[in-house]
Inverse folding.
């Protein structure tokens, strides 16, 4: 028995596990009469505007681009920060087309964990985005790579597609699998001490840029 199993055994002695059917029934009795969104009836463009505004409030850089401009915009943003970038192995190839031509940006697909600290940054997609809170959610599925890729490098460029943006939190949660490792990103990493001195880059990338594709 390892340490984890021993801890779980002790917890179960104090709080015995309940049958799955009983747990499901208890969740079914939870009232869900809360407001689902703050922006009923808002057109899609308004939701995207709100998302861009809230993301910018967190001191992230927001770029609004059309689908054909994604490769050139990514290449431009990466070229502005010389170095090697890590990308998920299944990131759409067309997004990186411009980065691989001409004055190519060095890219590493599925970089080793030990090499992440030496990268200039990372480029990923996302699973969902929330307009009301200006939050991007990664579930580390297709086009997103492991959680470490989005946390260790000092720069993170996230591509958000228009149909991934929802008005509010409840709708985002319905799109997400609670069994997956979810990372909620609301601006670049930042924390404050008791004197409210802001420090960036402690728990993740110091610089966050978001491409909103519509």
């Amino acid at each position: 028995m390892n340490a984890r199993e021993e801890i779980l055994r002790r917890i179960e002695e104090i709080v015995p596990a309940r049958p799955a059917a009983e747990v499901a029934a208890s969740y079914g009795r939870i009232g869900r009469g809360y407001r689902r969104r703050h922006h009923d009836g808002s057109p899609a463009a308004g939701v995207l505007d709100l998302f861009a505004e809230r993301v910018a409030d967190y001191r992230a850089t927001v770029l609004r681009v059309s689908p054909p401009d994604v490769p050139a915009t990514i290449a431009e943003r990466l070229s502005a920060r010389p170095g090697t970038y890590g990308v998920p192995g299944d990131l759409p190839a067309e997004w990186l087309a411009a980065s691989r031509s001409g004055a190519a940006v060095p890219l590493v697909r599925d970089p080793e964990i030990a090499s992440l600290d030496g990268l200039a940054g990372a480029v990923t997609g996302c699973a969902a985005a929330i307009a009301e809170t200006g939050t991007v959610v990664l579930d580390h599925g297709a086009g997103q790579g492991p959680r470490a890729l989005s946390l260790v490098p000092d720069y993170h460029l996230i591509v958000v597609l228009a149909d991934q943006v929802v008005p509010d939190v409840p709708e985002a949660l319905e799109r997400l699998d609670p069994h997956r490792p979810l990372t909620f990103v609301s601006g670049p990493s930042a924390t404050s001490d008791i004197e409210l001195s802001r420090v960036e880059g402690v728990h993740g990338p110091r610089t966050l840029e978001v491409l909103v594709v519509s």
Summary: The helical segments are 3-14, 20-28, 44-57, 70-79, 147-151, 169-175. The chain has one domain: 39-213.
